[in-house]
Amino acid sequence: MISTFVNAWFDSHRAEVISWRRHIHRHPETSNNEVETTNFIARTLKEYGLQPQRFPETGLMVDIGPDTELGRLAFRADIDALPVTEVTGLEYTSENPGTMHACGHDVHTTIALGLACAMADYQREHSLELGLRIIFQPAEEVWVGGATDVIEWGALEGVNSIFAVHVEPKLRVGRIGVRAGAITSATDVVELEVKGPGGHTSRPHLSADVVYALGKVITELPALLSRRVDPRTGTVLVFGQVNSGYAPNAMPESGTLTGTMRTADIAIWRDMQNLFSELVDQVLAPVGVEHELTYHRGVPPVLNDDVSTALLASAAQAIDPQAVVQAPQSSGGEDFSWYLEHVPGSMARLGCWSGEGEQHDLHMGDLNVDERCIGVGVKLFGSVVEQFANVQE
């Protein structure tokens, strides 16, 4: 059985696999700069007899097993770090100042690397009738995500389904959160600039008040959206930055407003730019200001396929009948969604909290994952391979 082999392989290679994670964590590289990370992954794969295919810039993928009419089963890991200063004080803390694996991508990479090497050994000892592809993707943390480049470079050619995990520091290690449908949200950025002639605050009737205009958008637009969009879709507009003015008695000539627009409904996301522009026009029409709206479309929501999610849950239960929990829908963005625009698949939440002490959050300098989650992830992926192979028979 594939799952039994992978479980035994990890148990016998645990120290080696953990050392991979610590090396990657110690040497983080930001998006599109993952040169040494790519080199390390490639060297490790070659040591296990595999032939990785590098992408034009950074990142790589590797195929294991034969090409079949059914297509390959793919797993994706993201390899980039964040511009965050690490404050964990760990023995293997980041040696690159101001850069840290604060989103757990070192764990994701290690899990995928462990699966690849385990399956390489399985292929040598047994006959693997299923084709696998392990994708080590760069630049997940930048707009709009490196997945679009990886897909353009052919990573999904011949792929049947794709799976991934994301560490979850709010979930105890050993637990695996699954969810059919939207597990993350679409994430767009909006920028609004308003302009007027300016003037003195003692004579507002002779000018157009851009500060008042910005205030109207800040307060009225979220309310209008709640009446135009089904509230069950998790559609949320939040402004994070507003700038205007230079003196208490002077009406400024311009002001800017920026924020994020999020939704778990892909149909709403596809039409949101038009709706947003329409509502901004309506809100600002009575004020008399000129305005320019810039709408930056980001990533769609990760929409986990029902069949793939059921397979993922079954694979998790095969490891531990108590492992599976219902994952909440997140308002965060994740570029794994781009893969699911092309092939079915599913992403799971991988518990990485030790169960004791503070639950640190993602993208924070004090994030410290329980490394036992790496073994859970490798064994989960091995179980997915077995479940998928059984379905295809």
UniProtKB/TrEMBL annotation:
SUPFAM superfamilies: Bacterial exopeptidase dimerisation domain, Zn-dependent exopeptidases
Cofactor annotation: Mn(2+)
Entries under InterPro entries matching the protein: Amidohydrolase (IPR017439), Bact_exopeptidase_dim_dom (IPR036264), Peptidase_M20 (IPR002933), Peptidase_M20_dimer (IPR011650)
Organism field: Corynebacterium striatum
Domain Peptidase M20 dimerisation positions: 190-284
Name of protein: Amidohydrolase
Any Pfam family hit: Peptidase_M20
Presence of the UniProt keyword Metal-binding in the record: yes
Top-rank taxon: Bacteria
Cofactor, how bound (note): The Mn(2+) ion enhances activity.
